[in-house]
Amino acid sequence: MPIDPKGYHGLAPLLTGVRAYGETLGEVKKNLKEAIPCRKSILDEKIQLKNSLVFYTNDI
Q1: 34 occurs within a structural domain
Q2: pLDDT tens-digit series, residues 12-58
Q3: Position 21 in a domain
Q4: Is residue 60 part of a domain?
Q5: Which of 2, 9, 20, 54 could cysteine-pair with 31, CB 3.0–4.6 Å?
């Protein structure tokens, strides 16, 4: 979808925050292919951190 007469933007709806811009649709596609793995690695790190947390309680 054109954002102005000179460019386009795209997004990955299932990966919040992944957006890309370019002067052509091909450039947007290329930029999205670069952005998606970056976002996925950030999400993977957050999942690993969440899974590594341990909570203790004094309840008997």
Answers
A1: yes
A2: 888 788 888 899 899 999 998 888 888 888 777 777 767 676 656 66
A3: yes
A4: no
A5: 20
Q: Which residue has the higher pLDDT, 26 or 3?
A: 26
- DSSP line for the chain: -EEETTEEEEE-TTSTT-EEEESSHHHHHHHHHHHHHHHHHHHHHHHHHHHH--------
- Residue 29 belongs to domain spanning: 2-52
Q: Which of 49, 17, 23 is nearest to 36 (CA)?
A: 17
For 22-45, b/e burial (b = at least 16 CB within 10 A) is beeeeebeebbeebeeeeeeeeee
**pLDDT on residue 5:** 64
The encoded tokens of residue 33 equal 């292919």
